[in-house]
Amino acid sequence: MELLGRRTQVIKLFLVLVVVGLLRGAESRTTMKFESLEYTAISCRAHSASLTEFGGVGDGKSSNTKAFQAAISQLSQYASEGGAQLFVPAGKWLTGSFNLISHFTLYLHKDAVLLASQDVNEWPVLKPLPSYGRGRDAAAGRFSSLIFGTNLTDVIVTGDNGTIDGQGEFWWQQFHKKKLKYTRPYLIEIMFSTDIQISNLTLRDSPSWNVHPVYSSNILVQGITVIAPITSPNTDGINPDSCTNTRIEDCYIVSGDDCVAVKSGWDEYGIAFGRPTKQLVIRRLTCISPYSATIALGSEMSGGIQDVRAEDIVAINTESGIRIKTAVGRGGYVKDIYVRRMTMHTMKWVFKMNGDYGSHADGKYDKNAVPEIKGINYRDMVADNVTIAARLEGIADHPFTGICISNVTIGLAAKAKKQPWTCTDIEGITSGVTPSPCDLLPDQGPKATACNFPADDLPIDLVELKQCTYRMSYL
């Protein structure tokens, strides 16, 4: 009987241990999370990890700067083994600036929010860009962007429309009060790099520019939503700067500045650096910016801008459709620009060109550095509720040439200016344009063939995306 009692006690103890183990296992399973990720990208990765594995806390209060830095540092070991992906789960992830690496993907869950820190100590200070010679806000250096990278290859920042929130109000106030020693940070800046993808994200309230690829090539910016107050300072949407072979498509931008601003350096610094922006495609862009342009070329264009192709553009309550900004002292050129199938509602100007745009880097600019503006082609456009059809002002003795406008109908607002076109120091032709353009743009008749859009594909249009699939498990 005693032996039987002991056996019964052992069995009971065993059963208790089994139940406890099952409960602990169930508890463990409830804390483990699983995500299935599917997206298209220029590259898929062989390795993947979650920010939580490196101490990340998504409570919106804890700083995750060190967690991002640790994760990216650890994942760099896989660069030569198929690359790595860092997954940011649902949550609010407060962070300062951090740097990306080559052969790397940063992926944001649809309910993930990166919150930019308002602690300036979490923003390293960088030297001014060599093609600018100084910062945009202050003559000294600039704060590093929230997501930054330089001298990289094969970099992807993407997600399922996750959010990057720049919490820009803090920076805008400092800017307006003239208290900034350095230029405000951008949300994403990648420089001296190649094979870049920035896609399927929402960018909110950037301190300044939102997306800034600079001195880079083979760039895809796709499915980006940019939202900022229309009075916020310098919150440009996407600014390709001294870049080659870039494609911007399917983006929606509401901002306090230009929705897309094409750049290539500032005055003598841009001339000396000598790196143009060329082979740029912009398509299926929607823009709202009551005080700025849908697409701006310049004003920092001293390295040159060439072969820009924009099509299927919608502008709503935006100051201007296509704008060229330049001045004596810029040097450089803007040429071979093609825009077609643009729809505009409630505009101040449809077309605007300025040859007297000031804002020089310093007083050292070359007063003999006259920019060359030629080969500007606009066709197949319609606009309504427009105050002024066009203001086209070149440079005395250096006119803007080769302007071609075809099949454009502009409906003027009830309180439109009596003179819908203002033209000085320009040369070109038109065909089928309403209202009738200025004498410097003579009408060639409705049957004239002009302003043709290029039929060839640029190399960036031939990039084939891969279908990437991951099964993520994380705490």
From TrEMBL:
Pfam families: Glyco_hydro_28. It is found in: Secreted, Cell wall. Coiled coil: none annotated. GO terms for molecular function: polygalacturonase activity. This is Probable polygalacturonase. Its main location: secreted. The keyword Signal applies. One of its GO terms (biological process) is carbohydrate metabolic process. Belongs to the glycosyl hydrolase 28 family. Keywords: Cell wall, Glycosidase, Hydrolase, Secreted, Signal. Residues 1-28 form the signal peptide. It comes from Prunus avium (Cherry).
